[in-house]
Amino acid sequence: MDLDVFVSAHRAEWDRLDALLRRQRRLTGPEVDELVALYQRTATHLSLIQSSAPDPQLTGRLTQLVARARSAVTGTRRASWRDVTRFLTQGFPAAVYRSRRWWIPTALLSTVLAAVIGWWIGTHPEVQSSIAAPADLREMTRPGGEYETYYSSHPAASFAAQVWTNNAQAAAMCLVLGAFLCFPVIWILFQNMLNLGVGIGLMSSAGRLDTFLGLVLPHGLLELTAVFVAAGTGLRLGWTVIDPGPRTRRTALAEEGRAALGMAIGLALVLFVSGAIEGFVTPSGLPTWARITIGVAAEVAFLVYVYVLGGRAARAGETGDLEQGERSASVPLAA
Q1: Which end of the chain has the lower number of beta carbons within 10 A, N or C?
Q2: Which is it for the CA torsion 321, 324, 328, 331, positive or negative?
Q3: Measured between alpha carbons, how far is 265 from 171 in angstroms, rounded to an integer?
Q4: Which pLDDT score, from 0 to 100, does residue 100 have?
Q5: Mean of per-residue pLDDT scores for the chain
Q6: Predicted confidence (pLDDT) per residue in 116-128, tens digit
Q7: What percentage of the chain exceeds 70 in pLDDT?
């Protein structure tokens, strides 16, 4: 594309749009129609210049012009309860549902990895001795030892808040760092599974695996599911950088990145629930079967939420991205 010819052909339209936006008086009906038409054409011009002949100065001018026109056409809107309801009933569950082909395999492979690590540690005394001295291991795994008292070592409210903060940070890191070609996500996930595997291995070697699972399962089912969803979504985001499909890499990354940031908010709410269970249910005096039942109920409720509400919203076209009117203009791609 010859940029000089393109600018000469469309400069009058851009100047006219700028003049309409600067009008102090209220626009007439025909002027409003003209403003909308010029806004749409200028947005297309901006996309063409960005993809074919990027020029920083011209791109900056048209970006500001399109932003001002969009504000004039759509008006300034504030988040409302309708937005919150849409996010919780459509956007977030649909985004989780759409990424299920990533987080379900992630969950299965991670669980197998934790089990293998636990078996390896539990059946190899020399590995256990490399983790800590025998006396320290006995202190950790004995009845009333560190593994059991960990969940009641602090007041329930502060412990739940601390757990929620740590888990939310880990989930957010998986979502954000996924753009770096997946590697940070894999490392974060491995560290989580290593910690779980160590606990399984040490407690099983002490003949107390049932106690360990009774402490972990009430909150761990929902907590680990949220971590797996975050990791799977981060991996999907990283793969988008490698293979954006029919979209341009920038468009694909923007769309998936916006959905991932929305999922960070939703997963923070999910982890708040698991943190509350870990702070108040896990260390409680309830029998093991009751604590595990609460954890299973929370997990089932989340999966039903994702597969029923999320599946329905995804089939209706919901992606978890911003609504169409709030996205940046882009040029359709040829098939």
Answers
A1: C
A2: positive
A3: 10
A4: 93
A5: 84
A6: 999 999 999 999 9
A7: 90
Q: Residues 295, 219: contact at Cβ < 8 Å?
A: yes
Are 312 and 261 in contact by the 8 Å Cβ rule? The answer is no
What tokens appear for 8 in the block?
């000469």
- Measured distance CA(126)–CA(107) in Å, rounded: 29
The reported pLDDT for the residue numbered 110 is 94
> What stretch of H or E contains 329?
none
Q: Do 223 and 167 meet the contact criterion of CB atoms below 8 Å apart?
A: yes
Q: Which amino acid is at 169?
A: Q
| The model's pTM | 0.71
Residue 61: partners with Cβ closer than 8 Å, 6 or more residues away: 14
Q: What band does 326 get if pLDDT is binned at 50, 70 and 90?
A: very low
Tokens of 130: 């490399």
Give the model confidence (pLDDT) of 49-76 as tens digits.
877 767 778 888 888 888 888 877 766 5
Alpha carbons 309 and 221: distance in angstroms, whole number: 20
Token pair listed for 91:
């956007």
> Would you state the structure tokens that stand for residue 252, as one six-digit string?
């694909």
